[in-house]
């Protein structure tokens, strides 16, 4: 049986990233994947009707496009093309108006009337300095390379979205606009550090747009795997790992799994103390997801929404705040915050001619199986009258179905664990290195490690650097 320098278990974006980094260093690596296809949640399938391509998990990828690791890879040579919507994201209101996040900070601020100057104060400096702080933000806690810029950002990011929004913005619509980006965190709007997600995602829009891969999210995975195999890496599909002793001999094992799953692997030789700490890891809210085949584009009342790749639904700041608060109490909102992606407005390869797809989800309590179809469609109908009439077919997934699709989505949690202040930088446990377990040979590289959820590969990249430095650096 072949011997390896490193075996990576799980072919999600982070597992692939870890494998690529180690293979680039001249090591002999292999990825073991339990599914028939690579990619974890980053996949594209025909979920509704023939000819309609739907992203089964992640759909919009600004963090992948801007990833400090992915930008070093020749993915274009391996077929990856990026699609840039005219407007990164938009936020509609019941009176028919909408606010748009443009790639131009000034243009975005010009919509905000009384809040224009405050928006520029908040975002102009962060956007222009993003490269100086991004690598530090997308890794474990350490001494930052640009400490003053990092601290300035940190003092804003540590606040709740509600605190930051009320401090900078007087207009309710501007606050709802900011909360729409912040609520990607799945955190309540009034908890510490919830503003960090609103800040980072807004900067992504202003600096990079919110692009997505042409043809579907799987195009990103296909390019990554093709590159990995071109440099000598191996991918083994349909091989679920349950026992480390059943794997080939290796100097290191890197798991793209969440803590709950790692604890189920036999013979990892983890200490009882480490196992106890992993067992206390907290998972966040889940999602209820819908994919639609549509007869035409979503008929949003406001033109800005018709030109945006992503739409945030939450018609007032209070509605978004209440929706996220109820979720964390274990309750269901009847007017939930909703994320919508409309790819085919900009990418005609995903549907038959003159037809369209759409993708959406709302947050629900972890493990909840309530059917949110009508609730989600009713919310969209308020911003796009006639939406229900253009639905040709739909595919839905509740939290349990999502977990069956990808076992890393524990209880529907797409972020690999709760991303609150106690777990944002210390996930999965408080340790000198979050990637190294109590067994010197065993590492974890999933989104349950810093910097957490998102399609950026930085959890895998950071974990792989630790593996290399511990075992292979001369």
Automatic annotation (TrEMBL):
SUPFAM superfamilies: FAD/NAD(P)-binding domain (SSF51905). This is Pyridine nucleotide-disulfide oxidoreductase domain-containing protein 2. Signal peptide: none annotated. Residues 15-246 form the Amine oxidase domain. Interacts with COX5B; this interaction may contribute to localize PYROXD2 to the inner face of the inner mitochondrial membrane. PANTHER family: DEHYDROGENASE-RELATED, PHYTOENE DEHYDROGENASE. InterPro entries: Amino_oxidase (IPR002937), FAD/NAD-bd_sf (IPR036188). One of its GO terms (molecular function) is oxidoreductase activity. Probable oxidoreductase that may play a role as regulator of mitochondrial function.
